[in-house]
């Protein structure tokens, strides 16, 4: 058993170490080896602006749709070259809100088209493809319902398409509710890592980038040449990105152009989003890895693409280490004397790979001291999500079905009252897995007590991080699940009383 333990731990530790070192190389590229930000070839005279269609795929977004439409209507772009498509698959009052706003905003000369489908075939990808068939615009801008594009967005981004090889330009995400709760702070730090480290680093290396599903603009010809939007994965944005770049289209990332958005809250909404991202990424990896590795691309492009597409394959190894740590803590009293330094060395190696990138990222954002205090809690929350993300990643490998479950949006104006949003929209709560996560959290607390008795001081921090992470994720999911169910029953009872 000891030999098996060391073998499995060594394999998992080496995989995580390679992953961590890769993150360090991306950080180095983004921080020290940063290439100059791309510059447009020139400004466009008023009469030469290309036609742009702004696509807004929505489904039951009553709480945020007005904010979205009014921000898009304020875009500073020639109205005769601009069209707004509201791709509305809603089956609630959202459609009525959109119809009212469409009438109001169209009176100012804005071309706003409200497209309804009888079936949600293909979900978001299907809606985007349907909208593409209804317009002849040269450029296609896409915004999810929780985004608030600034007025200058199109004027800044469109000139980059003067280069005929550019197929897509992606803007950076910013966050309206970054400081709302510990959960939103975690998410903001994680996504800052993507938009301030990974995307700029990949851009400077000349490797494949990805469209992030929103806050970007596509060249119509690029989408069509790559085969259009496809709904056979849950990450249609990542899928189309690779298909387009396989054909030689150039993608650009603009870190200086930020688009505010809303982070998912509470925990069930966050878990729903993470499930879709992890499962969809593994589905896309299955679909494109062979083409990537056998195609006529440089070794650098292939290696970075491999890390990119398999980024969520790391979760099963993190989960495996968690269970191996529990076995080590509760193993026989005469455990090998090498167990503590072995576990401790792997943990310290991973910490060296994790904390410097996030610490430097915080320095890049000129964060306050609280940002650095947040780092161990961020690490704990990532560990706490390891079981859920492992399940999602394995589903992506074993289950090709792409059932899209939307992430509920609440509207920043009600961020202080999430219960109101829960009574309207809520993500489904997985009950079994949060119970398991909560039990694991308590078991890790018992394991920490066992380590204190054994005087294993070196590895105690990793056990405490696991305990906090699993308890935080599990208990918070159960709390919001119960609250959602209570709010739903109260809303149903009030509705029945009103009908009487």
UniProtKB/TrEMBL annotation:
Its main location: Golgi. InterPro entries: Nucleotide-diphossugar_trans. GO terms for molecular function: glycosyltransferase activity. One of its GO terms (biological process) is cell wall organization. It is a multi-pass membrane protein. It is found in: Golgi apparatus membrane. Gene3D superfamilies: Spore Coat Polysaccharide Biosynthesis Protein SpsA, Chain A (3.90.550.10). The keyword Transmembrane applies. It comes from the Bacteria. Keywords: Cell wall biogenesis/degradation, Glycosyltransferase, Golgi apparatus, Membrane, Transferase, Transmembrane, Transmembrane helix. The chain crosses the membrane at residues 6-24, 306-330, 342-362, 369-388, 460-482. This is Glycosyltransferase. It comes from Candidatus Methylacidithermus pantelleriae. The lineage of its organism: Bacteria, Pseudomonadati, Verrucomicrobiota, Methylacidiphilae, Methylacidiphilales.
């Amino acid at each position: 058993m000891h030999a098996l333990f060391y073998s499995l731990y060594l394999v998992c530790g080496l995989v995580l170490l390679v992953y961590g070192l890769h993150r360090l190389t991306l950080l180095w590229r983004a921080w020290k080896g940063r290439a100059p930000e791309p510059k447009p070839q020139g400004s466009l005279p008023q009469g030469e602006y290309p036609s742009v269609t702004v696509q807004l795929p929505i489904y039951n977004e009553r709480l945020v749709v007005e904010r979205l439409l009014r921000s898009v209507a304020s875009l500073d772009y020639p109205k005769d070259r601009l069209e707004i498509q509201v791709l509305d698959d809603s089956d609630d009052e959202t459609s009525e809100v959109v119809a009212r706003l469409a009438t109001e905003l169209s009176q100012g000369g804005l071309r706003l088209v409200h497209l309804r489908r009888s079936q949600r075939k293909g979900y978001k990808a299907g809606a985007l493809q349907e909208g593409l068939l209804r317009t002849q615009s040269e450029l296609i801008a896409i915004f999810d319902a929780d985004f608030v594009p600034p007025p200058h967005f199109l004027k800044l981004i469109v000139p980059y398409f003067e280069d005929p090889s550019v197929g897509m330009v992606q803007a950076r995400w910013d966050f309206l509710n970054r400081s709302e709760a510990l959960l939103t702070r975690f998410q903001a730090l994680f996504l800052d890592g993507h938009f301030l480290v990974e995307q700029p680093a990949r851009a400077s290396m000349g490797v494949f980038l990805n469209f992030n599903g929103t806050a970007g603009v596509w060249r119509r010809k690029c989408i069509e040449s790559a085969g259009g939007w496809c709904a056979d994965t849950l990450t249609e944005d990542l899928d189309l990105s690779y298909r387009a770049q396989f054909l030689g289209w150039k993608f650009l990332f603009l870190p200086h152009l930020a688009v505010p958005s809303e982070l998912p809250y509470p925990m069930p909404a966050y878990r729903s989003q993470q499930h879709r991202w992890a499962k969809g990424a593994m589905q896309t990896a299955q679909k494109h890895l062979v083409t990537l590795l056998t195609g006529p691309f440089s070794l650098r492009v292939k290696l970075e693409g491999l890390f990119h597409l398999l980024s969520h394959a790391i979760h099963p190894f993190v989960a495996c280490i968690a269970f191996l740590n529990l076995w080590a803590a509760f193993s026989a009293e005469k455990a090998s004397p090498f167990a503590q330094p072995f576990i401790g060395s792997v943990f310290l190696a991973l910490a060296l790979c994790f904390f410097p990138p996030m610490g430097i990222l915080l320095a890049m954002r000129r964060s306050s001291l609280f940002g650095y205090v947040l780092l161990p809690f961020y690490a704990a929350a990532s560990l706490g999500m390891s079981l859920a993300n492992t399940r999602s990643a394995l589903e992506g490998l074993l289950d090709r079905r792409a059932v899209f479950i939307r992430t509920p949006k609440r509207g920043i104006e009600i961020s202080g009252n999430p219960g109101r949003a829960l009574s309207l929209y809520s993500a489904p709560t997985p009950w079994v897995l949060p119970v398991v996560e909560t039990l694991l959290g308590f078991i890790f607390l018992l394991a920490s007590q066992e380590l204190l008795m054994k005087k294993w001081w070196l590895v105690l921090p990793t056990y405490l991080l696991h305990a906090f992470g699993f308890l935080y994720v599990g208990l918070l999911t159960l709390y919001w699940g119960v609250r959602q169910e209570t709010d739903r029953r109260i809303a149903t009872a009030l509705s029945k009383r009103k009908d009487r």
